[in-house]
């Protein structure tokens, strides 16, 4: 985690520098109220810095959970335990209390108005429960009846883990994909859609046979490919409009490359390829016509004529 104190210090110093810098410039320009625009600009910079940190840290924490919290045991949150504590760490009452807590959080996460993060939290709780009970079972400190009860609890928690992890991946990826569709810049669209793909991949590593995850990956991959193809087609159309036919042809070929490399349905790929290749042939015809006109003009002016 980056230092909050250091970040805030840099943000405040930057805002203060901007404040006095603008104030000095406005004083020299003869502004009657230099403090007002300078203070407003400094406040905006400080607010943007704080908001940016909040967004970045939230994304970093979610990525940390994806990479470490789900696939590995969360050891940093548990103190060192002696062998005696481990043996009694999952007594009957503790076992029942853990199950009730997970069930309560699961019901709340399935309620109306819940966020994908709530499902991710429940999935993390299920993962921690399964890890601790596996350790308790391997220690062999339980009788047969208690072991049966713990295994029955594990089956219930595994089902909840699958449900909530899938729900989180579905909801979070849809939200990110919707956000990507609203973005204006191509880079932002691809970056946000890639984050949606990361959500699906994190769940797919645990449940590789889940058909819904495979379908979601294909859908997001098609969106990313379509964004790249549309970007290069737009650039090619701009170049063709300006009369830069060679550049337009090259950009259409870049669009063909991304169309062939991306996860696009066969019928869409075939239709898109035919359309782009048709545009390339039109541009080649225009380019030949321009070259022929230029050649005729050069021949008509003679070797000493102006070009």
Output mean pLDDT: 80
**What's the total helix number?**
10
Helix content: over 70%
**β-sheet strand percentage:** under 5%
Report on this structure.
This protein has 10 helices and no strands. The chain has helices at residues 4-28, 35-69, 83-88, 92-110, 116-139, 144-182, 186-204, 211-241, 245-261, 266-301.
Topology summary:
Elements: H1 4-28, H2 35-69, H3 83-88, H4 92-110, H5 116-139, H6 144-182, H7 186-204, H8 211-241, H9 245-261, H10 266-301
Helix pairs in contact: 1-2, 4-5, 4-6, 5-6, 6-7, 7-8, 8-9, 9-10
Key descriptive features of the protein:
Methane Monooxygenase Hydroxylase, Chain G, domain 1; mainly alpha; single chain; 307 residues; 10 helices
Structure summary:
This protein has about 300 residues and is mainly α. The chain has 10 helices and no strands. The protein has 3 domains: about 5-60; about 95-210; about 230-300, Methane Monooxygenase Hydroxylase, Chain G, domain 1 (Up-down Bundle), CATH 1.20.58.80.
């Amino acid at each position: 985690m980056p230092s909050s104190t250091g970040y805030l210090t840099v943000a405040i110093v930057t805002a203060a520098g901007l404040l006095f810098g603008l104030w000095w410039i406005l004083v020299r320009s003869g502004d009657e109220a230099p403090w007002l625009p300078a203070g407003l600009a400094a406040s905006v910079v400080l607010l943007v810095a704080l908001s940016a940190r909040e967004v970045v840290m939230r994304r970093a924490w979610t990525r940390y959970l994806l990479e470490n919290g789900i696939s590995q045991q969360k050891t940093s949150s548990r103190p060192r335990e002696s062998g005696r504590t481990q043996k009694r760490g999952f007594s009957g009452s503790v076992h029942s209390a853990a199950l009730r807590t997970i069930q309560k959080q699961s019901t709340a996460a399935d309620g109306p108005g819940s966020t994908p993060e709530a499902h991710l939290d429940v999935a993390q709780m299920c993962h921690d429960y399964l890890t601790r009970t596996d350790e308790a079972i391997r220690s062999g400190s339980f009788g047969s009846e208690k072991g049966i009860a713990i295994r029955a609890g594990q089956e219930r928690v595994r089902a909840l883990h699958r449900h909530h992890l899938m729900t989180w991946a579905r909801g979070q990826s849809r939200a990110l994909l919707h956000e990507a569709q609203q973005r204006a810049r191509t880079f932002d669209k691809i970056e946000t859609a890639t984050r949606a793909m990361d959500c699906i991949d994190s769940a797919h590593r645990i449940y590789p046979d889940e058909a819904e995850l495979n379908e979601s990956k294909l859908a997001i991959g098609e969106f990313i490919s379509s964004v790249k193809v549309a970007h290069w087609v737009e650039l090619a159309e701009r170049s063709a409009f300006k009369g830069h036919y060679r550049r337009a042809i090259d950009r259409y070929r870049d669009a063909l490359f991304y169309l062939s490399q991306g996860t696009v349905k066969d019928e869409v790929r075939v239709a898109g390829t035919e359309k782009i290749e048709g545009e390339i042939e039109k541009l080649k015809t225009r380019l030949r016509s321009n070259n022929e006109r230029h050649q005729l003009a050069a021949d008509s002016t003679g070797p000493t004529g102006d070009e």
